[in-house]
From TrEMBL:
UniProt KW keywords: Aminotransferase, Hydrolase, Pyridine nucleotide biosynthesis, Pyridoxal phosphate, Transferase
Coiled coil: none
Enzyme class name: hydrolase
Gene3D superfamilies, per database record: Aspartate Aminotransferase, domain 1, Type I PLP-dependent aspartate aminotransferase-like (Major domain)
Quaternary assembly: Homodimer.
Family: Belongs to the kynureninase family.
Gene source species: Pedococcus ginsenosidimutans
Any Pfam family the entry gives: KYNU_C
Catalysed reaction, written as an equation: L-kynurenine + H2O = anthranilate + L-alanine + H(+); 3-hydroxy-L-kynurenine + H2O = 3-hydroxyanthranilate + L-alanine + H(+)
Keyword Acetylation: no
Protein name: Kynureninase
Length: 418
């Protein structure tokens, strides 16, 4: 198929896209050199309304009401915004999700709380996999060293992810906690959240899921799956902005029994009493530590407005269509050049990005960035094509993939594309 035929097909897909009009909600500054943005799975594009909301926030709740806003609304924001994330993308009933801290800090707090409760029952093993995101592995290694725990490693396939059978083979009477990513950061493989959670529970362990590559792209059903704990960032498909605060989910049945290790004043039952000793608040607020990142939640709420309008199921439908197009273009245009698809071809177990592999992709990624085509690189030899359903068009996919082909051809010829 000629290049113009791919472009014509993309134009037809964009014209029929029920979410197409929502692309206008995302900021594209005039004069930008951006041609194709394939890194929405690392940093989502800003919602245009975020700038106005920030100005209103500065003039109103902050500039006008000043410290009174803490009593009037801000103290409720971690739970209120958390509930909204829970409802829109996590399948979580109210009162179980809050926003605050970074993903790393929340992973530490929830993992520590889980193992602390389980060690008392004679459980001293933590199950994790070799291909989980580095933060997850490092945090658990630190907790294991601190608490004298044993790490049970699952050797995960970098092209897929953790399987139910692997989990069943390692969990047992000493399992305190198992921590996995629902969508693998490297390959995009979707783990079986319900079945793996049940397998760990059958062994008496608790489960913590990292949903950083899930939230806003792949529907989750934390309550229905019976998940104990979960965390995720908000700067990918939730478009909260660089360094935007993470969210944490703690199933209601664990409130009052799991106790996190960072005892801050906001998590105390009566925060403003400021008395001696730490008496944790009831419910999810006991997992909050210090002053909530109020300003950082403003852009996040603008993004949640768009997600609510679209609906997570429609978002997932478009995500599948976009990644299917990426794979077909990879097969047609790039496979003859030695590129292979390193993500699942079955869309039911593929998340929101597609990883392509070939020698030399690190250098080719740098070349593409100079041309305004922005994927990202992950070892070994992988380019991730991250398509964000609410802000990525089908035309953008075609243009970016054609540019990738041309960059490979130029690299093989020893030339420089411009």
């Amino acid at each position: 198929m000629a290049d113009h035929d791919y472009r014509a097909e993309a134009a037809q897909l964009d014209a029929a896209d029920p979410l197409g009009a929502l692309r206008e909600r995302y900021l594209t500054p005039e004069g930008t050199d951006l041609v194709a943005y394939f890194d929405g799975n690392s940093l989502g594009r800003p919602v245009a309304a975020a700038a106005d909301l920030l100005q209103q926030f500065v003039a109103g709740p902050w500039g006008d009401r000043l410290i009174r806003s803490w009593d009037e609304q801000w103290l409720e924001w971690p739970g209120r915004v958390g509930d909204r994330i829970g409802e829109l993308v996590l399948g979580a009933a109210p009162g179980q999700t809050f926003v605050g801290d970074s993903t790393t800090v929340l992973l530490y707090k929830l993992s520590w709380a889980a193992v602390d409760a389980q060690v008392a029952e004679g459980r001293d093993e933590v199950v994790l996999d070799t291909d989980n995101f580095p933060t997850d592995r490092y945090v658990l290694e630190g907790i294991a060293a601190e608490r004298g725990l044993t790490l049970r490693w699952i050797e995960a396939d970098e092209r897929s992810g953790v399987s139910l059978e692997q989990v069943q083979s390692v969990v047992g009477p000493r399992t305190a906690l198992a921590v996995f990513s629902h969508v693998a950061y490297r390959s995009g493989f979707i783990a079986d959240g319900a079945a793996i959670t049940a397998a760990v529970h059958d062994a008496g362990g608790l489960v913590l899921w990292d949903l950083s590559h899930t939230g806003g792209s792949v529907p989750a059903h934390l309550d229905d799956w019976g998940v104990d704990l979960a965390v995720g960032c908000t700067y990918k498909y939730l478009n909260g902005g660089p360094g935007s605060p993470a969210w944490a989910y703690v199933a209601r049945r664990h409130h009052g029994t799991l106790r996190q290790p960072i005892w801050g004043w906001i998590g105390r039952r009566d925060a403003f009493q400021m008395g001696p000793g730490y008496d944790p608040a009831d419910g999810i607020r006991s997992f909050v530590s210090g002053t909530p990142p109020i300003l950082a939640m403003v852009p996040l709420q603008a993004s949640l407005d768009v997600i609510e309008e679209a609906g997570i199921e429609a978002i997932r439908t478009k995500s599948v269509a976009l990644t299917e197009l990426v794979i077909r273009l990879a097969d047609d245009l790039l496979a003859p050049l030695g590129v292979e698809v390193a993500s699942p071809r079955d869309s039911s177990v593929r998340g929101g990005h597609v990883t392509l592999r070939r020698n030399g992709f690190r250098e080719i990624t740098a070349t593409l960035w100079t041309q305004g085509v922005i994927p990202d690189y992950r070892d070994p030899d992988g380019i991730r094509i991250g398509v964000a359903p609410l802000s990525t068009s089908f035309e953008e996919v075609v243009v970016g993939m054609l540019a990738l082909r041309d960059a490979i051809v130029a690299s093989d010829a020893g030339g420089v594309t411009g």
